[in-house]
What we know:
Blueprint: E1 2-4, H1 5-8, E2 12-15, E3 18-29, E4 34-41, E5 50-53, E6 58-62, E7 67-70, H2 74-78, H3 91-101, H4 119-123, E8 140-142, H5 143-146, E9 150-153, E10 156-167, E11 173-179, E12 188-192, E13 196-200, E14 205-208, H6 212-216
Parallel strand pairs: 2-7, 9-14
Antiparallel strand pairs: 1-10, 2-3, 3-4, 3-8, 4-5, 6-7, 9-10, 10-11, 11-12, 13-14
Amino acid sequence: MNRSVKHLQAYTLVARDGELGSVEEMYFDDEKWTIRYIIANLEEVPDKEWAAVSPVSVEGVDWKNGTIMVDLSREDVAGSPELDLEEPMGREKERQLNRYYRIPVYWNGVGLWGNHVYPGLLAEESVAAEEDGSDRETRVHGTREAFGYTIEATDGEIGRVDDLVVEERTWEIQFLVIDTGNWLSGRKVIVDTHWIDQVNWQDGRVAVSLPRNAIRSATAI
């Protein structure tokens, strides 16, 4: 089932031994468009404000009560590497998080999670002594950063990103929710992320390989 990222950002992160705090943000990569980290505001943890937890550690989601349960203790999360939400998350910070939580890196392999579709399967693998050593540019971005980005069809602008839709088991972002503004009288439509050609993170623009008429007939919400 698909879920709204904005809806998930109102959830509470819960460890094995109690609440951690509210979900503030989610980070995703712009290569496979998959949520890589859940960022929590640790209201219930002394002396630490923010923490990042991978979906690999998620044990379950209570959709009725709005909680995300992780297979970690409050102490585990409290001791995790420090985050600066004002700075981009680079590959070295990702390595630090993976080493700390002792989970394999997600970018080694052809699947969404290593060679797997689901993050839980990656969790079952042993942590490799070496990984690809890649120092590529930052590819992880905040979901809130994407909200408001301009959508450009092949023949002109069509609106702005209003939300992201994520598949609840894989954590893959499958659709952009587009607020079409005055163009379609404020109607919102969804566009599959596989139609994204390029994202200009500096200018806040998303180019999709569809004409405006194709998006006009896209599924409305």
